[in-house]
Amino acid sequence: MPEPTGEPTGIQAEEPTGAPAGASAGSAAPAGADARDVERFRQGLGLPALIDVHTHFMPEPVMRKVWAYFDAAGPLIGRPWPITYRQHEDERIELLRAFGVRAFTSMVYPHKPGMAAWLNSWSADFASRTPDCLHTATFYPEPGVEEYVRAALDDGARVFKSHLQVGAYDPNDALLDPVWGLLAEAAVPVVTHCGSGPAPGKYTGPEPIGRLLARHPRLRLVIAHMGMPEYADFLDLADRHPEIRLDTTMVFTDFSEQLVPFPAAELPRLAALGDRILLGTDFPNIPYPYAHALDALARLDLGDAWLRAVCHDNAARDWGL
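^ thats the sequence. predicted structure below, dont judge the formating
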């Protein structure tokens, strides 16, 4: 969720050769027990697999800096944020597979000009060597953005990430107008961190996204974290715009409920929008086991059909999986 410190264009992502910098004893979850818990969840629903639309794989130098940020994030959110899955990249991929995740993403996002095209190059390579990863790309309001977004689409990108909080940019920036047009025309989903959690940004909240959708109503935006903490406002947008999806990333977990609880009065709306809510987790950057994110959904008591749709069927439909 918070801001990474990236590398400028042209720097090559280094391959992990030892324990990632910043890893500490006990930082990794007991994978076997966690996988068994996830398997029990899937078996209880009769689901052979999960689809997670909000996972992070990044160039190793960027991931290390993201982890360092989370390690120091306590003062920002008022409590520690331990990384549960601080393993090597290959181990993290195998963990998702052990959880039964049949498709996932490599959410990357820039915080400055000159970074997005480099991230897109890395993500394209990652997707080419990781067939269960949906080819992910990103962008930033800068000269040349239309060209590299078009190139990513031509290269097979199937989902984009737009992080308005970290990027600190207005989605209505004129430089992005042709980009939104391209993405709307291609019907490629854009996972958008536009809510004001964990800390508000200049362009977070429902108002900038509402103005964007007024101009590009066919955009398939996936509202990350269900718009935390402006849950009701983003549900209102979803009511008005049938192409909007919302992902469950970190919402309903004990960690988030202690900080920004989801309003109980809005639960009936979750049931009504059950065909447009997608499983997301923020793996590996979560301060609890993966299974807890699933249990948090189950305890909403919205029914097995709702859980099957959220955890698999909706994404399978939207991405043709």
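The chain has a mean pLDDT of 90.
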